[in-house]
Amino acid sequence: MKFTELDLKPGILKALQKKGYEDLTPIQEQTFPHVLSGKDLIALAQTGSGKTAACAIPVVQSVDPSIKEVQALILVPTRELALQYVDEIAWIAKETDVSTFAVYGGFSMDIQKSKLAHGVQILVATPGRLIDLLYNSDLRLAEVRYFVLDEADEMLNQGFLTDIEFVFSCMIHEHHTMLFSATMPNEIKHLSKNYLDNPEIFELIADQKAPSSLKHCFEQVAPRRRFETLLKLIKDEDPKQVILFCSSRRNCDTLYDHLKKEVKSVEQIHGGLDQNKRTSLFRRFKRLDIRFLVATDIASRGLDFSHTDLVINYDLPQNPEAYTHRTGRTARMGREGKAVTFVGNRDFGKLKMILRVNRIDAEWIGETPDMSKASAGKKKRRRRPSGKKRPGPKRADGQKAEGQSATAKKKRRRRRKPKTQE
Ligand code: ADP
Ligand code: MG
Question: How many CB atoms lie within 10 A of CB 67?
């Protein structure tokens, strides 16, 4: 179906035309009439399938620019996603009078407050900063008609459930809730049962784990030869743009220090950098001003980098889901992309699980290792010595989740591992 067949405002159609959007993607085609009709919905679709515009276009179409209050509220788990989302809404709304803005932690609250005071119809927010603003500014949600949770599974992963419930409790008036996610863990079912009104569920991920234009390669690396293997890989592949994922900030630092001596145009991004730096890196990487980005999992969720043709898992991802999200940064919208995962001798058990759950036929660079003896089952939990506290939730880069508010900290629940749909 073409966008021109929809009854969209001329300003929106003009923007879509300029951007080169002609046909709706499958998730857009399915959800569009439901968003417009104002029904609650849950949309599950693989990464890179166009979920942002699936929500943003009908929302820009529906809000009333003459009302200066927030009418659509979009919650996202990270600051970079907030920026990406608001950029997407901004170009869709460019030829209209609809105003959009993003609020997130690490940025002046005063500036955010004054922008909000001028009237914003579509607000994108990370949960922590939104709640700070609800407590400390005139921001009210009484006019919100659309409440959107993007990357809902990741928000719950990061322990934002209590915050999300708090935001729901601030909106006792009638509104429509839309949940966009790549997976459907039990927590989402629970959330939907409690807060959504008979939602329509669109599921476009059941049979397709990852884009078919994505090639999954694996390479066994000998101890202490990881970096050498990397340099050879970069030389052989000659990629246009690469993200190199590491499992911790420290690994990021080390790889970045070594890599910048060998190649040009390399930067690193992780939760320890200040927000201005993160924002500028993210925008420069999107513009292809940076060729190599060394990153923690902070860059693995939802971010849309259309030039990235190679993802390297320098360290093995923690679980099958993390693998999907990291590698989903390439091969977006049918483009060709490649993921190369480095595998050490101790990684076989976890790798087997990643391959099994994600239904990947591994293609090996170099020799195919014998993994027959490794177990893909879950590790047995060791009992913690009595008296020791259970450690708090940690993110992959060892930091607490960005923007967690007091409510989340106080009432943090024991989080079950989300089950992937696939
Ligand atoms: P998701 O949220 O499902 O991971 P995104 O919304 O980030 O995916 O979209 C992935 C890419 O597809 C983006 O670069 C976006 O600009 C592009 N895109 C989305 N919808 C369309 C469309 N209808 N036609 C062409 N490109 C599109
Ligand atoms: Mg998305």
Answer: 11
Q: How far lies 27's CA from each of 77, 220, 346, in Å?
A: 21, 37, 39
* Average of per-residue pLDDT across 100-122: 94
Residue range(s) occupied by CATH 3.40.50.300 in the chain? 3-203, 214-364
Average pLDDT in the 11-39 region? 91
- Listed residue (143, 137, 92) closest to 121, CA to CA: 143
- Rounded distance from Cα 382 to ligand 2 centre (Å): 36
Of 141, 103, 98, 104, nearest to 122 by C-alpha is 98
Note the pLDDT tens digit of each residue in 178-193.
Answer: 999 877 777 788 888 8
Distance CA 230, CA 227 (A): 5
CATH number for the region 3-203 comes to 3.40.50.300
pLDDT tens for 189-205 read 888 888 898 999 988 76
State the Cα–Cα distance between residues 216 and 336, nearest whole angstrom.
11
CB-CB contact of 344 with 314 (8 Å) = no
What CATH fold (topology level) applies to the domain 214-364? Rossmann fold (3.40.50)
Distance, CA 55 to ligand 2 centroid (Å)?
10
Q: Separation of 150 CA from ligand 2 center, angstroms?
A: 7
Pocket of ligand 1 (CB under 6 A): 21, 23-25, 28, 45, 47-53, 302, 304, 306, 332-333
Q: Which residues have CB less than 5 Å away from ligand 2 (the ion)?
A: 51, 302
The residue contributing the CA closest to ligand 1 atom 9 is 50
Q: What is the mean pLDDT of the chain?
A: 85
Q: At what angle do helices 51-62 and 79-92 cross, to 10 degrees?
A: 50
Nearest atom of ligand 1 to the alpha carbon of 46: 3
